[in-house]
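Regression check, tetrahydrodeoxyuridine case 137:
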Amino acid sequence: MTKEELRDKLIEEAWEGRKNSYSPYSKFAVGAAVMGADGVIYRGCNIENVSYGLTVCGERTAVFNMVAHGCKTFTALAVVGSGSAEAAPCGACRQVLAEFCESLDTPVYIGDGNGGLLEVTVGEMMPHPFLKFDPEN
Ligand code: THU
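Current build output:
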């Protein structure tokens, strides 16, 4: 699969993931999809809660879905929102993406409901991430 084919596939999968969004409070449905290093695509969606701060974004549920299935690295991610708003990953998600991305050059595709698409890398969004430390030191 070429890079462009993977991008288009992940965008499509992110829209599929968005169908499961639980967002009755914001009414802003988000879908995401990652390509795991195991070759499997994992989807996610935002999941809100009446205790608003417990909400989890679509990007994180996609990555957590991957990890829960035994894969700890993704090689590309797509996230889609609705309308003209780009669902640019929030700060908390950026830290989670930095933890599980293949490298800081891993591509992130951000789509909106009008066919707009922004391509960035994890490193561009999260230039100086706090990365794994040695617990012995
Ligand atoms: N949200 C995401 O799922 N991903 C983003 O990139 C930005 C925001 C969700 C959180 C909340 O459920 C809704 O969008 C409105 O903030």
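Comparison notes: The chain has one domain: 3-125. The chain has a mean pLDDT of 95. No diff flagged against the previous build.
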